[in-house]
């Protein structure tokens, strides 16, 4: 692919690979919390669907997909982006594609610590309907530096030694991969799309905790990275999103289950009419 062809690739799809979803969908454009300025409280990052261009009103900058990748990844060059696209590293159009997805920005991890030492995370978790005490066994507090500014949030470490970081209005990964919690069951595994979905499962079904191994995709693009975790189980239970990407990922896992004679359960019918399990917990229908 040439740089011109790359710039025809969807900016919306690129953002989705980093779990960045629009806050508002308007006629012809989407509004996001800025991935460049994670501390903002009002969506000011616009993506025009027809022209496939972005603008960040907070810094009065904008441009093409390549311009955005360069802004989020200061160490990149245009030639490296073109090379990575042609290697498939940026193949975010394909659900089954390479899981080496771009990170949201150049991030320096300062420290991680037990969540119980980070009472400031309580407000964020409560806004998602999650009890602080129940989250402590599954997420950590994290301090990180980005663009010279220190931020704090919550994080999970994935099987590729990357951190999936989230805070109010911001999500990113230092390196993509799935997060796995083993309860040494080896018989049944719960699969969710994001950490908030897993924590919502724990809130909704507390008696089920400890009866299953637990897996968080962190992105549906990481699907290829979970099959080795699924193969030794007798049951696979999915709680993915009620959207097109969730449909496709659920279908692929179901096909894998059938091919390997593993029982499969799609629990999305339990929260039909809700975008995901966390929205169901919060009582926020689509």
TrEMBL record:
It holds the Pfam family Toprim_2. GO terms for molecular function: DNA binding; zinc ion binding. The lineage of its organism: Bacteria, Pseudomonadati, Bacteroidota, Sphingobacteriia, Sphingobacteriales. Signal peptide: none annotated. SUPFAM superfamilies: Zinc beta-ribbon (SSF57783). Gene3D superfamilies: 3.40.1360.10, Zinc finger, CHC2-type domain. This is Toprim domain-containing protein. It comes from Arcticibacter pallidicorallinus. Transmembrane segments: none annotated. GO terms for biological process: DNA replication.
């Amino acid at each position: 692919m040439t740089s011109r062809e790359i710039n025809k690739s969807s900016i919306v799809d690129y953002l989705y690979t980093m779990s960045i979803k629009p806050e508002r969908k308007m006629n012809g454009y989407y509004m996001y919390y800025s991935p460049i300025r994670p501390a903002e409280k009002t969506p000011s990052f616009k993506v025009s669907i027809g022209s496939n261009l972005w603008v960040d009103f907070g810094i009065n900058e904008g441009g093409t997909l390549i311009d955005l990748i360069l802004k989020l990844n200061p160490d990149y060059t245009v030639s490296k982006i073109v090379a990575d696209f042609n290697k498939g590293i940026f193949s975010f159009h394909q659900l089954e594609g390479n899981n080496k997805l771009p990170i949201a920005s150049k991030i320096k991890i300062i420290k991680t610590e037990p969540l119980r030492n980070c009472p400031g995370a309580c407000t964020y978790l409560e806004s998602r309907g999650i009890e602080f005490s129940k989250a402590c066994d599954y997420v950590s507090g994290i301090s990180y530096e980005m663009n010279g500014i220190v931020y704090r949030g919550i994080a999970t470490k994935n099987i590729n030694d990357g951190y999936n970081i989230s805070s109010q209005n911001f999500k990113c990964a230092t390196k993509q991969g799935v997060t796995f919690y083993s309860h040494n069951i080896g018989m049944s595994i719960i699969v969710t799309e994001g950490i908030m979905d897993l924590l919502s499962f724990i809130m909704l079904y507390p008696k089920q905790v400890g009866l299953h191994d637990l897996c968080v995709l962190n992105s549906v693009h990481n699907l290829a990275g979970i099959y080795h975790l699924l193969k030794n189980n007798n049951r696979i239970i999915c709680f993915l999103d009620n959207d097109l990407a969730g449909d496709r990922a659920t279908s692929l896992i179901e096909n894998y289950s059938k091919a390997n004679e593993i029982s499969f359960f799609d629990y999305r019918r339990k929260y039909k009419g809700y975008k995901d399990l966390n929205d169901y917990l919060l009582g926020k229908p689509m």
